[in-house]
Amino acid sequence: MSGIDESAVFYPLSIAVLTVSDTRDEATDTSGKLLAERLAEAGHKLADRAIVKDEVEAIRNWIERWISEPSVDVVISTGGTGFSPRDVTPEAVKPLFCRKMDGFAILFHQISQANIGVATLQSRAFAGQAQDTFIFCLPGSNGACRDGWDHILALEFDSRHKPCSLAGMIPRLRHVCS
Q1: Per-residue 3-state assignment (H helix, E strand, C coil) for 33-52
Q2: If we measure between CA atoms, which residue out of 133, 126, 18, 16 comes closest to residue 68?
Q3: Which residues contact 51 (CB under 8 A, 6 or more apart)?
Q4: Mean pLDDT across the stretch 26-45?
Q5: What is this structure's pTM?
């Protein structure tokens, strides 16, 4: 049966949040703030948070920095996943993957379709793994971040989720799903 096993141990993850935007700053970054608040409320640790312009090299530099940091389990980015000429998050991040998580995009689009209809086609949300770090790239809207966190990530990051959660795939927590 799928769900949270309240009798199991909760293991917090260390999660970095990257906002990709040409227009946001710390005061106006509502989607990054939403993700940081949600992960803290869930009991996880905010490892780091940054805002970067929609530029392949800038995005890739932050992601590579966090991949190389053993204390960062997961990276969540918000923004740069659309179809405007400046939206380059997939081009920056996907080449770093050793594994793609195709199911994340499928599930995200199913959830998104219920809220915004066929406009979900304008998103290139995606996820994968680079070395031992899991990376999830969400659109930049608060609604998309809320949908991604509330309906997917909150459950997948909770070590008590059964039959198994992504937490059990983190090297230091591999015993959780054994």
Answers
A1: HHHHHHHHHCCCEEEEEEEE
A2: 133
A3: 18, 19, 21, 24, 25, 26, 29, 32
A4: 97
A5: 0.96
